[in-house]
Design goal:
The chain is of the alpha+beta class. The chain has 9 helices and 18 strands.
Length: 294
């Protein structure tokens, strides 16, 4: 398993699946065929399928063991979920919980579940299907939602409950609220002594960056602030699914710059291997520390 040590804390990647459903050019509206050709030598085969023109995106969670608490960050897609418009996400049957146990936590041992935002591919394992009902997967956990994000999706669901993200709200967020396990917090809330939820809007209105500080070390769990390593080189590129693409770009620039200033480890939700690491400024944008920019 892939682990990053941040001070006394350990962040372990918990794999769900690899998504191959997104066309690169459609996913990044500002990209051109020339951009793809110029980056093909490093993107393929690990981050891009040259024969299909599709992105390779990892779907994974991060399990953070602080020494005192076990915290799951972002809950992927989940099993048995119906996702209209996303056939690659429908009715999955993955051994995610077995992988979580291998990473160091059984469901009942998880103390907190933190959601960077409430899109369907970040909340799915919040719940699991039991006797025909969606129940909290982590029975002893508090599920932490940003108030701005929670209010946004609550209003969206009240006005129109169609679409795969609202299906996610229905089967993976509402049951948590009904079970009394939701903890809705304001900006800069501190959780588990060492994690802070900082506003990072753009992809969704209430998206947060989750900053971990342990001793002299820091890391940031970025959810959908950044989807793909090409955005290190092209931080102005926002994906087609960003609610406010200009704001998403500004947030990405801010978070990447803060990573450099703080020497923080970047731990995204969708990067393929190496899945995370420290970054540095480069001639064009940013790149992984210690690696020459291709």
């Amino acid at each position: 398993m892939v682990r990053f040590r941040i001070g006394k804390a350990v962040a372990t990647r918990v794999e769900e699946m690899t998504d191959r459903s997104f066309d690169f050019r459609k996913f990044f509206p500002l990209s051109t065929d020339e951009d793809v050709a110029a980056n093909l030598h490093w993107m393929a085969p690990g981050h891009y399928e040259a024969d299909t023109g599709r992105l390779l995106l990892s779907m994974h969670s991060w399990l953070v063991d602080t020494g005192r608490f076990k915290v799951l960050i972002d809950g992927c897609i989940g099993n048995d979920k119906e996702r209209p418009g996303r056939p690659d996400w429908c009715n999955l049957q993955t051994p995610f919980l077995d992988r979580l146990a291998e990473a160091g936590a059984r469901p009942e041992q998880v103390d907190y579940v933190l959601c960077t935002h409430l899109h369907a591919d970040h909340v799915g394992w919040n719940t699991r299907l039991l006797d025909g009902r969606w129940v909290p997967t982590f029975p002893n956990a508090k599920y932490v939602f940003s108030r701005k994000e929670y209010d946004h999706w609550q209003a969206q669901f009240a006005s129109d409950s169609n679409g795969h993200h609202l299906a996610g709200y229905r089967d993976s967020v509402l049951p948590i609220i009904e079970a009394g396990q939701a903890l809705v917090v304001d900006d800069y809330a501190e959780i588990a002594d060492c994690l802070v939820l900082a506003p990072a809007p753009g992809h969704t209105p209430g998206h947060v960056a989750i900053w971990l500080k342990s001793g002299d070390d820091a890391a940031v769990f970025t959810g959908d602030i950044i989807h793909h390593p090409v955005q290190l080189k092209k931080p102005a590129w926002s994906c087609f699914g960003c609610k406010d693409q200009a704001q998403a770009s500004q947030t990405r620039e801010k978070v990447l710059a803060e990573c450099v200033d703080r020497g923080a480890t970047l731990l995204p939700a969708h990067f393929m291997a190496p899945f995370g690491g420290r970054i540095r400024p480069a001639a064009r944008g940013y790149w992984w520390d210690g690696e020459a920019q291709p």
